[in-house]
């Protein structure tokens, strides 16, 4: 059955569509923290962050089904679901972020964010983080060095300025007393070079918590300092919260940028927003929305559809109930990180454990003294976990960071399974 599916995929969908794992999973159902395959084997999902409330959450499914049965149309009609959801969503942000644009994917959200930044600043240049991924459109390919840097015929264009990841594990400034300032200086250098070449910044775009770049937490005050520098030169600050948004960062924070004590001008949202239903958004200030509206109508057939808005509301309804559970969720994230840190102390091959909430990265190295990345070992762990019914993934500039992003409803027991799997690592490596 699996082989048949794979050969038909190749035939009808072409070779560029990849799958997870050497031995891909033919999935049939999802329930809470589990994905279940066609043989009824359950896999603990530690990596799919759109299903942040758990797979196929019944309240969200019911809301979608009821709305689809009643009405699903576009924003050229007036309906309460749109304004109600926009109002509920903006309430989750600092006051100045007050206007929403609804789209269908994280890529669309980031693409629109760049357009808004350009319309507001009349500038064309962007500062991006090395190792970042912001989406797959023609514009976003250029600002996503993680996937597209010089690959597939997409060289970095001249209007994109890359700055190094604030890597506190092995980066240049790891032992500085003020790493935020040192890393922010890279942004200052990019801005200075821009000026010398007669250019101005349209925007600085960065995730609230870095994902593809290696799950590095941004040093405290980094975002604050960078935002100040960018704004001094007339640029706007975009926080891509497609991965880090909606409470993933833990610590009682809804958005990654809150960990940096900074307020962006534009926020982009996606993945967990509809718990798997295509729903994404740009949230920005009245001022930027006005610049964008100048001579340009915004319309998106499916963005802001009645069904998407109802799903978004259902997700927030559950979140509000779960907010009472916030303390439990925080405790699970802290417990997991603490136990992973104990493993790091025992195992020579675990160089670093970082992140917060249920957004954790575990970096594999050849040994602690050289800190040389161990991408082969990372792939081995991901594949071995899959064979034992636990779904993980890898990321980072050297592809040696195990990413851990389970649904937020995770309890302590599945954490134990992950820890048991990693415990005998040194023995496995001897085999
Ligand atoms: N931004 C970030 C940080 C992402 O991780 C992704 C997807 N992996 C996107 C944007 C693009 O989102 P989508 O795949 O929904 O277009």
From TrEMBL:
Keywords: Membrane, Pyridoxal phosphate, Transmembrane, Transmembrane helix
PROSITE patterns (alphabetical): AA_TRANSFER_CLASS_3 (PS00600)
Family: Belongs to the class-III pyridoxal-phosphate-dependent aminotransferase family.
InterPro entries documented for this protein: Aminotrans_3 (IPR005814), Aminotrans_3_PPA_site (IPR049704), PyrdxlP-dep_Trfase (IPR015424), PyrdxlP-dep_Trfase_major (IPR015421), PyrdxlP-dep_Trfase_small (IPR015422)
Transmembrane annotation, as ranges: 416-431
Any one of the GO CC terms: mitochondrion
UniProt xrefs under PANTHER family: ALANINE--GLYOXYLATE AMINOTRANSFERASE 2-LIKE, PTHR45688
The protein's name in its UniProt record: Uncharacterized protein
Organism (species): Guillardia theta (strain CCMP2712)
An example Gene Ontology molecular-function term: pyridoxal phosphate binding
């Amino acid at each position: 059955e699996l082989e048949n599916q794979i050969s038909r995929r190749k035939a009808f969908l072409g070779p560029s569509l990849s799958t997870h794992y050497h031995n891909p999973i033919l999935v049939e159902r999802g329930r809470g923290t589990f994905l279940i395959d066609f043989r009824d084997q359950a896999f603990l999902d530690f990596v799919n962050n759109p299903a942040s409330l758990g797979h196929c959450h019944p309240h969200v499914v019911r809301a979608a089904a009821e709305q689809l049965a009643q009405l699903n149309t576009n924003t050229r009609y007036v309906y309460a679901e749109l304004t109600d959801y926009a109002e509920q969503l903006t309430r989750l942000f600092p006051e100045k972020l007050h206007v929403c644009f609804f789209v269908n994917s994280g890529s669309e959200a980031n693409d629109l964010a760049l357009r808004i930044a350009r319309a507001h600043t009349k500038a064309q240049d962007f500062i991006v983080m090395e190792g970042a991924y912001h989406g797959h459109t023609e514009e976003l390919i250029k600002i996503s060095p993680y996937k597209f840097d010089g690959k597939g015929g997409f060289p970095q264009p001249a209007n994109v300025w890359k700055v190094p990841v604030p890597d506190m594990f092995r980066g240049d400034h790891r032992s500085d007393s003020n790493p935020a300032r040192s890393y922010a200086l890279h942004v200052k250098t990019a801005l200075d070079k821009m000026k010398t070449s007669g250019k101005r910044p349209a925007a600085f775009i960065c995730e609230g918590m870095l994902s593809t770049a290696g799950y590095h937490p941004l040093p405290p005050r980094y975002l604050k300092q960078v935002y100040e520098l960018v704004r001094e030169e007339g640029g706007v600050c975009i926080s891509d919260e497609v991965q880090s948004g909606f409470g993933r960062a833990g610590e009682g924070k809804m958005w990654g940028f809150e960990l940096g004590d900074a307020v962006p001008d534009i926020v982009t949202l996606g993945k967990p927003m509809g718990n798997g239903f295509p729903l994404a958004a740009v949230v920005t200030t009245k001022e930027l929305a006005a610049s964008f509206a100048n001579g340009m109508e915004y319309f998106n057939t499916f963005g802001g559809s009645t069904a998407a808005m109802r799903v978004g509301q259902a997700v927030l309804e559950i979140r509000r109930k779960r907010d009472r559970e916030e303390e439990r969720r925080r405790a699970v994230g802290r417990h997991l990180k603490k136990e992973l840190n104990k493993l790091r102390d025992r195992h020579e091959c675990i160089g670093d454990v970082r992140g917060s909430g249920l957004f954790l990265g575990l970096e594999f190295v050849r040994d602690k003294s050289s800190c040389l990345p161990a991408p082969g070992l990372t792939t081995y762990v991901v594949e071995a976990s899959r064979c034992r019914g636990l779904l993980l993934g890898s990321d980072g500039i050297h592809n040696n960071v195990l990413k851990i992003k389970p649904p937020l409803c995770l309890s302590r027991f599945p954490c134990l399974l992950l820890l048991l799997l990693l415990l005998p690592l040194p023995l496995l490596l001897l085999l």
